[in-house]
Specification:
The chain is mainly alpha-helical. The protein contains 4 helices and 2 strands, in the order αββααα. The protein has helices at residues 3-35, 50-76, 87-111, 121-140; strands at residues 44-45, 48-49. It has a two-stranded antiparallel ribbon. The radius of gyration is 18 Å and the shape is elongated. It starts with a helix and ends with a helix.
Length: 142
């Protein structure tokens, strides 16, 4: 396989992974968390409800797929950041890294979920919900 074909393959793999994550996995995790809280409500695994485990699993898989997608595109660019001279690629790279960074942040705050009886639980839930939607909207612009 020629070098240019290998580079094209990296871009295609990057795009495929990112599209799958941002257009399928992340929205599915959001929909599960928003609308399926009563699904198998009596079934608990690892001390949490079914919907929560599915939501958590989808978000972790998303993160695990984003990491190689990011590495693939960096490898394609010979481990250099895209030049600001190419405005479209540069804007794409900035929106991408901000989306990824915010996803890491979102998962980190998801791990620190307050206890159900905590006075901060309601604030946490609203912040987690709206920041997640913001990240999804931001990534969709990319």
């Amino acid at each position: 396989m020629e070098n240019s074909e290998k580079n094209k393959d990296k871009v295609i793999a990057h795009a495929s992974l990112m599209v799958f994550v941002w257009l399928y996995l992340v929205p599915s995790g959001i929909v599960i968390a928003r609308y399926y809280k009563n699904l198998l409500s009596s079934f608990r695994f690892l001390g949490a409800s079914f919907w929560f485990n599915v939501h958590r699993l989808l978000m972790i898989i998303s993160l695990l797929l984003i990491i190689p997608a990011f590495i693939l595109i960096l490898a394609h660019e010979n481990w250099h950041w895209v030049s600001p001279d190419n405005r479209t690629k540069y804007a794409h790279s900035i929106l991408g890294i901000v989306s990824i960074g915010l996803l890491f942040f979102q998962i980190a705050i998801g791990i620190t979920i307050p206890d159900k009886n905590s006075s901060y639980r309601s604030l946490f839930s609203w912040f987690h919900r709206f920041s997640g939607i913001f990240i999804l909207i931001l990534s969709s612009k990319n």
